[in-house]
TrEMBL record:
UniProt entry tagged with the keyword Nucleotide-binding: no
Pfam families linked: OmpH (PF03938)
Protein name as catalogued: OmpH family outer membrane protein
PANTHER family documented for this protein: CHAPERONE PROTEIN SKP (PTHR35089:SF1)
Length: 177
């Protein structure tokens, strides 16, 4: 019996030590997690900010001349088409065909210019978006270094509870002009 009692005590001591080690490691993990400082940036809010609006206004100003020229060309085509429809009964077949072909060529040219304008606009919009994203990245990096953030998340999050976690307003203020 004496031998059995000693064995039970050893097993209990081993269990106690294992449990103590497990609890200690859990506490260390919790402390390491608690020390992690996390920030969150709302990209939607930044894309709706005055800094993003400035980029949009710049693009509209840049492409307004080409857009106006396209609208003028469209009005010209519409006027020629209306005139051709109105005069079609009076025109000879050869003259009507010649004017119709010229009008169709002008429409093809208009569609090409419209497509080119849209492609150029999208390209410039992407360039401006990338510039804004670079500025946001620099602002976030400076805030993260200055305030000791370990992790900063962009975009969507399942849950953002603490107000101190959302650093979007700080990032907007730190954006270089």
């Amino acid at each position: 019996m004496d031998w059995l009692a000693k064995r039970r005590r050893r097993i209990t001591l081993k269990k106690w030590l294992t449990l103590t080690m497990l609890l200690g490691s859990c506490l260390l993990c919790a402390q390491a997690y608690a020390a992690t400082k996390i920030g969150y940036i709302q990209l939607v809010k930044i894309m709706q900010s005055p800094q993003a609006d400035e980029s949009g206004k710049l693009l509209l100003k840049e492409f307004s001349g080409r857009q106006a020229a396209l609208e003028k060309l469209k009005k010209e085509i519409d006027a020629k088409e209306a005139a051709l429809t109105k005069e079609s009964a009076k025109l000879a077949k050869a003259d009507f065909d010649k004017r119709t072909e010229a009008l169709n060529n002008q429409k093809v040219d208009y569609n090409r210019k419209q497509r080119e304008l849209a492609e150029d606009f999208e390209l410039r919009k992407e360039q401006e978006r990338n510039k804004l994203q670079d500025r946001v990245n620099k602002a976030v990096e400076s805030i993260a270094k200055a305030e000791g953030y370990d992790l900063v998340l962009y975009g969507t999050a399942a849950y953002v509870g603490k107000k101190g976690v959302d650093i979007t307003d700080k990032a907007l203020k730190a954006l270089p002009k």
